[in-house]
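Run log, item B.
One chain of 505 residues. Sequence copied directly from the ordering sheet:
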Amino acid sequence: MASREELQLLREARAGNAQSQCELGKLYLFGSKSLPQSLATALHWLSRAALQENTSAKLLIGNHIPYEMAKAYPDRHAIENWYREALEHGNDQAGLILAKLILSSGTTVDEKKRSEAIGILETIVDHDIPEAQWLLAELVKNSPHPTPAKNNALKWTARAADAGVLEAQIALIEHAWDNADYDTFLQLAVPVAHSLIQIRQEQENSAPNERSAQLLLRCGQLLLKKGKNHVEEIQPMWEMAARHKNAEAAFLLGLWHARMDEYGNRTSDGASSTSFKKAIRWLTQAGEQGLAKAWYALSLIYQKAEFSQRNMADAQRYLEIAANLGHPRAQYERGLHAWRNRREDESNDILAVYWLQKAVSNGETEAAQVLNRIAIRAKPASWAQTALQFLTRESVSSHPFLAARIELAAVFGLSRPEALLLDIHSADKGHCLLVDIREHYRRSKRKLILIQTGRERQTLSRIGRLFEKVDCGPNGPEGNYRQRQYRLKTLLPAPVPEHPEDTVS
């Protein structure tokens, strides 16, 4: 229960007496025999006094109210001024809070705010305030403009790291990694990694942030290269990083338990005993986070004869997911699988070319070799190029379909029968041109022509629009094959060389 003096002080404070408000706020700031310590209540009374220009109240706020509480105060301009006054009276901690308030004001940090915060921190950075050293180092490092302070960023980071600021330690470790100084990286990172794991063991709810998880991942990778002496350290590091949703760590952990590399080859590195169950758990987690190579590794596990739950349907399903996410090897194998099964479904050759093209574009060299065997590249047909020279504006206007077919042959290297009989609607497969006229011309063979250039794509799309509502068969406006041949011969004033295959069987 409050004493008589405190009750009197409360009445005077409520009446608006600045000195009483300051004294009451001070009591709540530190607590008394009858009044509990309450920073929120202290700020309430001290701020009322400070708004009446009570210097003592301003200094008490600047000296004792923490940043989290100051940040929530509604009058940002007023509270910044109170911390500024405390800084002018020599309170360096008030300068740190002031800099943080300036940086947190508004939705974005503009260059003016950044410069003001840097200026404040530079006045206190040499007074052994590790958090100020770290904040200043981060500000000048991320500043878009070169400043003299940038040269000292690494020095301030090192000082903050020596004082135990974890984020500064991680930044120093990242600097070693970026400069490929892996010995220094391990020297600095291993103790931090061990402390993170220990904190996790002591506090089950604690979890590393993204930068800490990345540190644990890299530390494990480098220790793995060092040899078997560090095997017991690696797994806890990757497990902790993976639990923080680090996909790469989960992927490596999956390979670790499967004792294989990402292409399914057996390795000597890994867990003491192979556990496909654990491997699948971690690889699935990595895959669900969008890591294509994790789905590919899963497909390899489900193909393994030693896996008790071997399932080729699941293996194919995971392979398709990896291919859809852009994994080059998965795309190559997907294309190869489609090509080998073309007898079951003739259109599988189109699917094979699609996936092989994708794999080639992603750098898979084996896919290029297979693609060159099953599809051809567009080469201009000499007969069509010659025929194009005889076409006039009038002939193109009177026979637009025939002119379009000649142009298509000139771009994609079609023979005369192929050009005259091709079903334009079904030929365009997006990534390739399907040439299949066997129904009307028995001696021909089904073939696929790759669409590789913008000109090829534009030509085919334009001609496709011309034939959009046209029947390309013998019952359409172009007539049968003999009629089309006759029209071609009469359209051209000079004889165009023919190939032997161009004659009707």
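Observations after the first pass:
- Residues 182-202 form the longest helix (21 residues).
- The chain has 28 helices and three strands.
Flagged for discussion on Thursday.
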